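for the writeup, i need someone to sanity check this before i put it in the appendix. the sequnce is what the collaborator sent (i think, or maybe the updated version? ugh). structure was predicted straight from it, no edits. if anything looks off just tell me and ill rerun, i have time this weekend
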Amino acid sequence: MSSPASTELEVITLDWLGKMIGLPPQFLSCSPGYGGGVLQGSASEATLLCLLVARERYVQRLHEKNPSLTEQELRATKAKLVAYASDQSNSSVEKAGILGSVPMRLIPADEKFQMSGSNLRAAIEADLKEGLVPCIVISTLGTTPTCANDPLREIAAVCSEFGIWHHVDAAYSGAALICPEYRYICEGIELADSFNFNPHKWMLVNFDCSALWVKDSRELVAAMSVDRAYLVHTQQDAGMPDYRNWQIPLGRRFRALKLWFVLRIYGVKKLQEYIRAQCKLATDFEMLLRGDDRFEIFTPAHMGLVTFRLKGPNENTNKLMANLQKSKKIYVVGAEVGGKAMIRFAICSRFTTFSDVEFAWNEMVNQTDKVFLTLPENATNGHF
């Protein structure tokens, strides 16, 4: 009621964006049903929101089946709820569990750094035997350490079997879905309950702008609505969303405007060209790595990310990372997966060109030379 233009533009731009990335119609406001999109501040907020909605949905359904349950008994049930995500998921996923008072069970990733359906099922069945209640599963497309993608269809089958909310966190990788050749990563998305990615991360939109779509917005409204006399207005049943009930805060910013500008200025074709160029630069850097036998590729270029390490013990890679941070000529982030230290090289800026990649590579070689000059001879032999 206080800003109908903001609401209308948000509905329209999120339908545009949903179509651009190939989301199924059931997630869009322009399709029959209760689907639709809403802009949040970050993927952290979107994950927490969906966890809270999944929690309240379970309690509400339980109360409908057992109307005689007291408030105390319902609170006791909440204490048994459990959430699930890959141990490769972003830290914000685990934090959502803390804030929502729902323990987050981190499922060990497989050899592809994915959360497999079989590992998820085993964890759920073990919790059920302990009297716990599975509440939500959070899949990741584009994990932070290696840009791995959880198998959505496989996970959705498990969620469907046990009646669990399935949320997909594609904070980084979601932008790549603008390019049809990358849509294979979201096979099975039509079976999820909610999907989120950050246009402010890889789609040229200024922070903060995180797009969340749900199949059934009534679930959000049921969990997030708190009506007071001063919030009642004449347009509540006019068919447009009242976005205060689709988020945690009451007030909200006009985030749709900056998204609208990017979509109108660049258009689908230019955004596709931008994403593809960034992916090509990551592949170029991988080729440079392969030309120096002191390096080993930890994960090949996927989208805009390459991960690699120095051959030998973790000490070698950690020293290289320390050298790069000390020189302050390029910025890279380290990680450790499966006990192996590695370095993440991510193409992030729209201004990055191959000359920048070459500059980074030359600095990498220079600092690697210094690492091996200071290492004892046996520290360079063999792999970790």
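The two ends are 61 Å apart (CA to CA). The chain has a mean pLDDT of 88.
thx in advance!!
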